């Protein structure tokens, strides 16, 4: 059999994809609804010579993967809301030190302990703004297991290409849902390896001097070049500095390398948007319900369209503006109080035509929920 | 190799206050590394945040200056990934045992092969003299203006109970002894803890009327005794120096290597 079909949870689809992308080191701490990823790694990583470690908390988990990444490994951790909160300081460290890593947040209801076994999409803004200080971030999501697989490989590729942490914002529904996954054959999806320096031993290596194309070749800890890594503002050798010129240059570099390459990282899917006067915008589990509604209404002649976002940060404002240009109404479907809605309102020419269809009670938003809100928007009542 | 070859001399003079003990710890550490003849490329130093943590900027190893309290967690990732490297983790007392206390306990429990050096000056020096978990009852700090009502940890007892397989204590007065202990700690296969009493005349000594740096060093001489010595028998209240624990227990990354053999069906 040439195809490698599986019937698995979304969490497992993500974990399978991480191995496909070349994951070698995983550190994590048990938390619902992400624990299946750690369990998968504990079993599978040592089989391929990789390593799994269960750390004492989520802070230690993200720190351990950053340490391992610096020795040349592809690394990942997985958690949910409370653990993601604990990881915020070290996430900023990975941003500042430009160490590639992938952080999975299988979202559950919050704040605080919230609803551990229920779905939410409440961490979109935390992914963007959770760590302190000015910075840019990459956050991706997907709604089907096949797409979770592809986007997870993208996450590793972006982490390596741009030397940045990448956040995968999954959710409880897709994480625990079981459906078909067709694991691609080797090399069917391109994977990006670590870009290593070609500077020879004995020649001055500048770990933080970008090449002309903006990329920063790395040298593994334990390898030929000894350098310093610090969360302080640092010069091209990695040593602390308070020089305003260097501080300005570094913060611009950290933000620009993400924002200027946003197009390269924008992933989305669209359904019937060309002729739709009402465009739904959704992502993750919510977009499954949105798609169901769109396809049902199309059969009855109602012109609904769906733009499913997979890249949430950097937010694809230009894409959203383009796809909503001819829409009379834009309905953002999400399971929070309008985190992506805010961005869509910024993106479109007429923010007053943007509406929210949401649920924040721990239950998956249904096609009927969305339909009811569309009726209200159209002045038809519920 | 001369000891100065292990230094990044372009970053001198260092940022520690006049009279600070941390430079002495750096000196003893480098002499230990030099005696062991370790290749600079085989050493990774991971530090946290604080006066102590700045030590990593001065040594010509692979160096990682991380987050407050988290050095051991970062170091665990490095060691797990590259067990062949020598991993040194210098920490301050607040860094290691307040904010980093949990990581410290679990690194000791795992018995992962690295050397934790706790540069104990009994105070948060960099932030201006707040009390730490090693300041001690009755002492003064900027956040203990009426005398501290917090009790301190005994680092040796704590490390031993947590499972560290090498536990030692020395001071910045006993430099030769300290270098020898650090050398043994690095050689030891497992989690090694070396507590170094290191004077902070600026922020601890001054507020607690302990005199100048020289007087504080004199105090280390007078108030400590070698473990299991005649002097120790005669003075049960004095602080013990020396190697308290040195034992064998399966080391974490080595055990993981065996697990990989099981998982791949090689064993």
Give a structural overview.
- The complex is a heterodimer of chains A (382) and B (267).
- Chain A is an alpha/beta fold and 382 residues long.
- Chain A has two domains: 1-265, Rossmann fold (3-Layer(aba) Sandwich), CATH 3.40.50; 269-377, 3-Layer(aba) Sandwich (Rossmann fold).
- Chain A is 38% helix and 21% strand.
- In chain A, the strands form three sheets. In chain A, strands 2, 3, 4, 5, 6, 7, 8 and 14 form an eight-stranded mixed sheet that branches.
- Chain A starts with a strand and ends in a 5-residue tail after the last helix.
- The relative contact order of chain A is 0.12.
- In chain B, helix 6 (175-187) links the parallel strand 7 (166-171) and strand 8.
- Chain B has a single domain (3-263), classed as Rossmann fold.
- In chain B, helix 4 (101-110) crosses helix 5 (155-162).
- Chain B contains ten helices and ten strands.
- The radius of gyration of chain B is 18 Å and the shape is globular.
- Helix content of chain B is 36%, strand content 19%.
- With 267 residues, chain B is an alpha/beta fold.
- Strand 10 (228-230) of chain A pairs parallel with strand 2 of chain B, so a sheet runs across the interface.
